């Protein structure tokens, strides 16, 4: 990827106010494809060759990937113009974009409020018109949450629909790259471009588990669902005869203003010929706990690669804490001495509080004597959530919930209370635990603030959630 | 929180997390902490672990994996050049990554 010499500042001051971008750099593609003439912003945990990719962390402030993520190659092949790398919670760990080492992003709807997160920069850039489209990543709601808070559309694809090659891993059994747009059709058109199998991400193979027939050598059929589906074409608003399930457990926890908008949108769908049924997902009561145990455990392993040797902040340059604060284990200054001490010093310097919290809690959940109590139980809960969704899809084509149980909070309100932030994810994390597709679409406003409606579909049922979403936006 | 290496979950008291225990886990995770961080984390971890305790109520559930292992032939392909691989390293010498002296 060759970058223009001079970074282009689109939108000038308004854009700088939002702090939606960590790096502004325009890369024009000369390919003639479905995204020709479209501008796309890319979350800063998605690798871009020659353009720094920080993950919102001081650890990677100067990291420049030597290769493009598969989704970035596909954007270029489709003729898209890249406009920059967007701000995010550090390594995707947060729901407000306040844990970024590059400062918080403002919500363009109300600048005192958070844009959601962790893909807050991507959602804010699209909402403010700084980019036509954007890519984010969704581990527990990180595309849907900021889409809801900024009043745009965001899609979390089925696990395995989109290649994760080049996405810097946080919790790899849960995360997918997903698109943002100002309309359902725009977001779906971007999904059409990025979806599909990739030999560099083995989880994009679609095979025996779903009934693909093994060939003579015993290799399952790897026909990928994206090859037979046109997602943008599904945004036709035609929901006549569709059955929408409403999981009571995920409505009860939401604020009254949010529920009021949600119910208005359901009534509107009813008028368009949708049948609404109540469904029950008893397992979701444990979904947030299970999600955080699994995500933190995977994070503690994935982030072990940041040792300050191959990339990132070097232990010999790190100055975190005084000699006394570093304790008796840090008797030797600088890079000489024990490898682990240098490693620990690099990580003290390079990581912010929320990242340290999650690495430590994940290490704890996996440590001897605690693995069965936390990690194994969380895996049981994950299987239970999957089973509940399977049963619900026997009664409904898609499920509907408010995306977020609250209106976008003001900046700085909740940073010191991590648990209250985790609870905000109640409606989004069950979808990641069950590997399912979901969309968040703007359903209306309260107090001048956007409310998002989430539709969840069965595995590889993106077309159904896109169709349902397109009926709401009309 | 009593995360000794031979820790016993039955002795765990999620309400009692002290800064020394936070430091022990931080040591396992290779993350230095200063005193303020250890104290703040001890308080927050007590809340979070107390919340996680609800997982005790989850029944054992059989899970069928969505993904299965698919093998392919191991063929040599182009990867990063040595220069590309070293480009982001804070320190390198004679084509190698350079780390601290191992004592």
UniProtKB/TrEMBL annotation, chain A:
Entry keyword annotation includes Transmembrane helix: no
Region Disordered, residue ranges: 95-123, 315-339
GO BP term, pick one: translation
Domain called Amidase: residue spans: 27-465
Catalytic reaction(s) noted: L-glutamyl-tRNA(Gln) + L-glutamine + ATP + H2O = L-glutaminyl-tRNA(Gln) + L-glutamate + ADP + phosphate + H(+)
Gene Ontology terms: cellular component: glutamyl-tRNA(Gln) amidotransferase complex
Keywords: ATP-binding, Ligase, Nucleotide-binding, Protein biosynthesis, Transferase
Enzyme class: ligase
Compositionally biased tracts (Polar residues): 96-108
Catalytic center residues: 43, 118, 142
Family: Belongs to the amidase family. GatA subfamily.
General function of this protein: Allows the formation of correctly charged Gln-tRNA(Gln) through the transamidation of misacylated Glu-tRNA(Gln) in organisms which lack glutaminyl-tRNA synthetase. The reaction takes place in the presence of glutamine and ATP through an activated gamma-phospho-Glu-tRNA(Gln).
Entry-linked HAMAP family: GatA (MF_00120)
Protein name from the UniProt record: Glutamyl-tRNA(Gln) amidotransferase subunit A
GN (gene name): gatA
Automatic annotation (TrEMBL), chain B:
EC number: 6.3.5.-
Highest rank taxon of the organism: Archaea
Reaction(s) this enzyme catalyzes, per UniProt: L-aspartyl-tRNA(Asn) + L-glutamine + ATP + H2O = L-asparaginyl-tRNA(Asn) + L-glutamate + ADP + phosphate + 2 H(+); L-glutamyl-tRNA(Gln) + L-glutamine + ATP + H2O = L-glutaminyl-tRNA(Gln) + L-glutamate + ADP + phosphate + H(+)
Biological process annotations from GO: glutaminyl-tRNAGln biosynthesis via transamidation; regulation of translational fidelity; translation
Alphabetical keyword list: ATP-binding, Ligase, Nucleotide-binding, Protein biosynthesis, Transferase
Residues in the signal sequence: none
MF GO annotations: asparaginyl-tRNA synthase (glutamine-hydrolyzing) activity; ATP binding; glutaminyl-tRNA synthase (glutamine-hydrolyzing) activity; transferase activity
UniProt xrefs under Gene3D superfamilies: Glu-tRNAGln amidotransferase C subunit, N-terminal domain
Pfam families: GatC
Keyword Nucleotide-binding appears in the UniProt entry: yes
Family to which the UniProt record says this protein belongs: Belongs to the GatC family.
Subunit structure comment from the entry: Heterotrimer of A, B and C subunits.
Function (record text): Allows the formation of correctly charged Asn-tRNA(Asn) or Gln-tRNA(Gln) through the transamidation of misacylated Asp-tRNA(Asn) or Glu-tRNA(Gln) in organisms which lack either or both of asparaginyl-tRNA or glutaminyl-tRNA synthetases. The reaction takes place in the presence of glutamine and ATP through an activated phospho-Asp-tRNA(Asn) or phospho-Glu-tRNA(Gln).
PANTHER family per record: GLUTAMYL-TRNA(GLN) AMIDOTRANSFERASE SUBUNIT C, MITOCHONDRIAL
The protein, known as: Aspartyl/glutamyl-tRNA(Asn/Gln) amidotransferase subunit C
Gene from which the chain derives: gatC
